[in-house]
Amino acid sequence: MAKYYESQAFEPNVENISKMLDFVDARLDEMKLDSKEKIKYRFRLEDMLNAMIQHAEGDIKIRIVRGFRKARISVSCKGSQMDVKKYMSSFFSDTLDGPVSSIIINNYLKHCEDDLKVSYRYGYNVISLNVSKKKLNKFVVSLLAMLTGVLAGVIIKMLCSGEVATFMATDVFGLGTSLFLRAIKMIIAFLVFFSIASAISEFKDLKELGKVLGMILFLFFGTSIISILVSYGTFSFLPVGDTALQMAADSSMKIDAMKQPSSVSEAILGIIPENYLKAFLDVDMIQLLFIAILTGIVVGRMERHGAMLSNALSAMDEMFQGIIVLIVKLMPVCIFCSMASMVLKLDFKDILRLAGWMGLVYLCDVIVIVILLLIVWIGAKRSPIGYIKDVAPLMMSSFVMASSNAVMPLTIETCRDKLKISPKLYSFSIPLGIVANKDGSCVTLMISTLFLANVFDVPINGGLLVTLFFLVFMLSIAAPAVSGGLLLVLAVILPSMGVPVVGVSILIGLYFLVAMADTMTNVFSTVALTYVVDRRMNKPEAEAKLESN
To answer: Which CATH class is domain 4-132?
Structure first.
């Protein structure tokens, strides 16, 4: 409900613009706006007032409705309809050519569209400008959600019986997390398809696409190999795994084996879906990637209807991204529910027993992240500290959510708004990274296999070690995009190493804690490598962006 209302009329001349702005400033001083927010709204309002004055046929009326954190500035004046684009075009015409000024104007108006509205009603030009206090930093919001979730879990665990705690973990907090993840699952196949297809359709030159795709995949696969080597090297210096843990294995536990192709030809055939719809219904990421790339290439090469179909793909991509933006607004609630449920299910004795395995996975993930920061520093000439500040909210969210799919909208938002990466690049590199870039997964599979080999006293060396490297690299890519998918992959790798598959049951209780670091590393790697490719391919634009920041 509005707390404050005031209006005033001014004569429509340029000399009065400063008086109009001072009037607005005086009425908004109690909101204690951030200096950047104040400068932003003044510039926008000044531009619009200049345009309005040129069409005014009477006084300009300014009305302000102010609440606690928000205010609405409404400016109206009788006159002929003003054309904001035409006004701004004349403003830029002396310094920039037509196409460049048009791009700048469109980008400016699109950037302002959430806060600024210009309309013409009943012979009056009307400008509406929303002003608000700076929102809480996403990292702070995620951290608060995480801490309050932990606190809620601890309190319930202390005050309630085991049955009540289990009910709260599964049917209350678990329900909140499940609803969010189901909403993501509902949209993810369409988001991946249209994002990749629309981005690739923009590449009219297949050589350009091949260059970008080749560079992205080279970095994705290269860092995955580095992650495997880092894991093996770290485990060699800090071996963990005690044979006493064999008692913790549940021999009665049945583990559904991951469906494997019976031959190389069957594996290759599995890339191509039987029909378009099957890939969407099964949410098979590899098949979705295939048909999205194929569709994008064909649309990009079409002459007669290519532009129309490319616009249609872009429109669908924009629509599904708009849906996902609405869904992701609930992420803090999901983080709270996820952490509360986790604390209620936690067994601290299990944590102490498996601390070595979990600690080594976390250590290797940290080393991989440090290596990725060095790649950003060298490849993109970006300070690691500044880069970490930009991606911190994404890291926190991916850690807590433990799902690359769930944080995909936030990943896109970080690439677009924080890192200023070209949409043409991140629109297909991010979905591609969910499938093909698994640095954290490589770490988890490598350390887990070596750990269980020690538990069951099975030596892994020589040719067996080479086989392990290859299996970890290939199966990390083939891992199902579901919660606990890596455990199914591990159940495939262990028999190949001579380790009893029931070893998976030793890790399953605390796997979710490792999955959090696993996901964070995967997401961090995809964004970091996309950022490097963007800066290497767009050096002049990148330097300009860094200067503006």
So the answer is: alpha beta
